[in-house]
Amino acid sequence: MQEKTPAQLRAAAEERLRAPGAERLRLVQQRDEVDEELRPLVVAAKRAGITYRRLHEVSGVPPITVGRWARRTEPDAGVTYDEGQLQELGRKRTDLLRRVEESTDRLRPLVADAIRNEVPVRKITALTGISPTTFRGWSQKAK
Question: What is the CA radius of gyration of the chain?
Answer without folding.
Answer: 20
